[in-house]
Design brief:
604 residues, alpha+beta, 10-stranded mixed beta sheet, 27% strand, globular, DNA-directed RNA polymerase specialized sigma24 family protein
Length: 604
């Protein structure tokens, strides 16, 4: 992370850079809002902090006009958000967002109490340092550097306090933070009933009364957002959802959510379906007339599942919790991306609705590749609860599904639950076989693929509801010095529903050990449009000798390595790997040149 390229306070941004900054804010909105929410002073109530956190992020765009602000991206947006959160401005009177008639609060959780108390003891800069290390995985020095750019005059002490709190809590990551700190998933309750004189006002306010600019991502189908909403009126002018024929999937050449039939024991309950459709209309209207996928009762809750071809909407009405609407991207679904949808989660596990072309289902432990899959019943298309056995921050639980022979003979594939409405498709790209052609991703169900995923699952670049597919590309294998085994080099890629994505380089040690992630970058690295890569890794042999290991992909023809003790510039060996003994303790640089002359550097 090069903080020298970040914009200084008050520097304006041109129009093109403003559009780029806006795209960054939209993509990382949830993470930035959580960063602001944790940083804001602890003496504010949850409603004020939720609204203020969204205001801070929405005001984080650079000013239009003037000279360039340098490179803009997530690190720059993060600095602007921290500057706003640390100013202690009274955002509720600053213009927007504003909320009338309801109080917003993050879902309470037993884990909140301890963290609330501990954070309340810290000043905002230390809270910000904790958030940077917990959410973004920065180390103490990196967090201090970001705080300095955000205007904290003495950042070392807040960074130390944040690191101590993080260490005392066991080092939680973004996915481990209690739900009470996700300010993009909120509950609503009436806020001023005693001052209201007419029940008619209450009836209109119990929905969500907001201005056109209030919490646009909170109540819109952006990746990873979900919102709880009070019950909309039973009557609705929204168009009734369409239904597909039960056998349409057998007669079409394109499979996806669009050819699912309507299922569930409440699919003829027009009142329930009308409330679900109205709830969607009141938050972020669907792009087309919705299609009904499911309406039924699960574990005491009424659940309705709808799609408009771009998004999924799940409406849940539970006696204890009340109505809630969750939205998720789902455009251009296919035989795998449209194979399963999350219907319900509780302490027993997750229940999925499977596509009509799924003939068999099972669950699998990614961390136990040699263990056979366990059959999963799915009467009426709805699975039994699937417990989450995955480690925190890793994909899971994992479904192994098999398509009906009408679709494809012996077609089995893996889907991993990442917290959204649609599981992500897991694929595997094997190492090069000596031919000139690139090897395409394939289903991750072979013995080799399962072993690699067992080692590399927790090194994926990201885990979240916006991820459509995760691929593990084994781009090189290297025999370690001193007969210490074979090291596998991998690039793990996360592709989003909107076409964006990220990648992480990792090494998979011998004997099935867990992978070590080396670097991470947003963009199209390690995708079909960027099929060349190089990576470096410092390794110590069993006898204590240090090595700098280097590996590159199949089209690399030359490797250039500079260490404190030497410089190597040579043709790449057939394995496209190097082991440099005793490289020294100073900085090293690695560069690769492809057969077409393209020069590559490692991620980040």
């Amino acid at each position: 992370m090069d903080l020298k390229t970040l914009p200084r306070p008050g520097v304006a941004a041109p129009g093109g850079q403003l559009a780029s900054a806006e795209a960054v804010l939209v993509r990382h909105y949830r993470r930035l809002v959580c960063l602001a929410y944790v940083t804001l002073p602890a003496d504010r109530g949850r409603h004020a902090r939720v609204v203020a956190a969204h205001a801070v992020v929405q005001r984080a765009l650079p000013v239009v006009g003037g000279r360039t602000a340098g490179e803009d991206g997530y690190p720059a947006a993060r600095v602007r958000v921290l500057r706003g959160a640390l100013r202690r401005r009274r955002w509720a009177s600053a213009g927007f967002p504003r909320v009338w008639g309801v109080r917003l609060f993050t879902p309470p959780d037993d884990a909140d109490a301890e963290l609330d108390a501990r954070l309340a003891e810290l000043p905002p800069p230390a809270r910000a340092a904790f958030a940077l290390q917990a959410l973004d995985g920065l180390d103490r020095a990196e967090a201090a550097e970001v705080l300095a750019w955000a205007g904290v005059e003495t950042p070392a002490e807040p960074a130390r306090a944040g690191a101590e709190l993080l260490r005392s809590l066991g080092g939680p990551s973004w996915s481990d933070l209690p739900p009470g700190y996700d300010a993009c998933t909120v509950h609503l309750q009436p806020g001023d009933l005693l001052r209201r004189r007419r029940l008619a006002v209450l009836a209109s306010a119990v929905a969500v009364a907001v201005t056109a600019s209030v919490l646009p991502v909170l109540l819109s189908p952006q990746p990873g957002t979900g919102s709880s909403a009070a019950a909309p009126p039973a009557a609705s002018t929204a168009a009734a959802p369409v239904r597909r024929a039960d056998d349409l999937w057998r007669r079409t050449a394109k499979l996806g959510l669009a050819v699912w039939p309507a299922r569930g024991d409440l699919r003829d309950d027009t009142a329930l379906i009308g409330r679900a459709t109205t709830a969607w209309q009141q938050t972020a209207p669907p792009a087309a007339v919705p299609q009904l996928l499911y309406a039924g009762r699960l574990d005491g809750a009424a659940v309705v599942l709808l799609t408009d071809g771009r998004s999924l909407a799940r409406y849940t009405d539970a006696p204890a919790a009340g109505p809630a609407l969750a939205l998720s991207p789902a455009g251009d679904s296919d035989v795998t991306a449209g194979a399963a949808v999350v219907l319900h989660r509780d302490d027993r596990g997750t229940r999925y609705l499977l596509a009509p072309w799924i003939a068999a289902a099972a669950t699998r432990r990614l961390d136990r590749p040699d263990q056979a899959e366990r059959p999963l019943p799915f009467p009426g298309g709805v699975t039994d609860p699937v417990p989450d056995t995955a480690a925190r921050g890793c994909p899971g639980p994992v479904l192994q599904l098999r398509s009906d022979p009408v679709v494809a003979e012996q077609h089995a594939f893996l889907m991993a639950d990442l917290g959204g409405l649609t599981p992500a498709h897991l694929t595997y790209t094997p190492p090069p076989d000596g031919s000139a052609q690139a090897r395409p991703p394939r289903e991750a169900v072979s013995a080799q693929a399962l072993r690699r995923w067992a080692a590399g699952a927790c090194a994926v670049p990201e885990v979240g509801p916006e991820v459509r597919q995760l691929n593990l590309w084994e781009f090189a294998d290297q025999k370690l010095p001193q007969n210490a085994g074979e090291l596998a080099w991998a690039c793990l890629r996360a592709d989003h529903w909107d076409g964006s994505g990220s990648a992480a380089a990792a090494v998979l040690p011998p004997n099935g050990g867990r992978a070590e992630r080396l670097a991470h970058a947003d963009g199209r690295a390690c995708s079909r449009y960027e099929q060349d890569t190089v990576a470096q890794y410092r390794w110590r042999a069993p006898n204590g000798t240090p090595y700098l290991l280097v590996a590159a992909s199949r089209r690399v023809s030359r490797l250039i390595v500079t260490t404190p003790s030497r410089r190597l510039d040579q043709p790449a060996p057939p394995t496209r790997t190097l082991a440099v003994e005793n490289p020294g303790t100073g900085p090293t640089t690695v560069e690769a040149v492809t057969t077409s002359g393209t020069r590559l550097r490692p991620l980040n």
